[in-house]
Amino acid sequence: MKYSEYQPRSDLLKDRIILITGAGDGIGRAAAISYALHGATVVLHGRTLNKLEVIYDEIESLGAPQPAILPLQLSSASERDYELLVDTLDRQFGRLDGILHNAGILGERTELINYSPDVWDDVMAVNLRAPFVLTQELLPLLQKSQHASVVFASSGVGREARERWGAYSVSKIGIEAVSQLFAKENMHPNIRYNCINPGATRTAMRAKAYPTEDPLTLPLPESIMPAYLYLMGDDSLHLNGQSIDAQDD
Ligand code: NDP
Q1: Which residues line ligand 1 (CB under 6 A)?
Q2: Which residues, listed in sequence order, are joined to residue 20 by a DSSP beta bridge?
Q3: pTM to 2 decimals?
């Protein structure tokens, strides 16, 4: 199936509660707005409060369901921070129907022999540890959903290690494994776990990774939303432990 050609119903995510990490910018921002426009109550996570407030206002002005904001710095989040996050979601909503683990950082574009171990730790914390811990912590809320979808952000360099992508490539290969393990070990048939590779998309991260590339040659985050909607909505109920591409080759 070409996920880029998926045509969602306008009420695909009606009454769903969906957490989007890294919702303040790039693909996460587009997903938050798109999910909200398809009926979801979105929980906007990020590390920069004012960016989240801008998206919040934008969603409200579009007449979509009122979102919520949950700031958390993922590179240094403690057990207590995660507990507070879960507690806040529990008290406000009592369940969770989906998570888009979208937040990510690039790290260094250099050979492993020169790679800074501190940058390595940071990339692993945000791209790999945080989605694992968040999923684990949020399981009790996901279990209360009729059909919950957990979606992890992968990459082309998450399918096969690519030179000079260092920790980023390792973290994305790792997240594919995390998604598969959650899927294979799944004790709750109402929860599914999948990965999505957005493909080259016009965002700040892509510009940092390819500084000489003309961003105007790349699709905007808004244009890759069909695949993001597909994985979050009930049309993908049969998918578990899979990894899909948002763009066609
Ligand atoms: P951006 O850099 O544009 O956005 C990343 C988001 O993650 C930002 O909102 C950022 O917050 C948030 N974030 C980063 N670090 C942290 C942290 N420590 N704690 C909390 N939030 C954090 O990236 P993209 O939109 O391009 O990428 C989204 C996802 O897609 C990533 O996982 C990326 O790896 C993946 N991807 C992107 C591709 C592309 O071409 N763009 C290609 C392949 C994969 P803030 O705005 O405050 O910095």
Answers
A1: 22, 24-28, 46-48, 51, 73-75, 102-105, 126, 153, 155, 198, 200-201, 203-206
A2: 44, 100
A3: 0.98
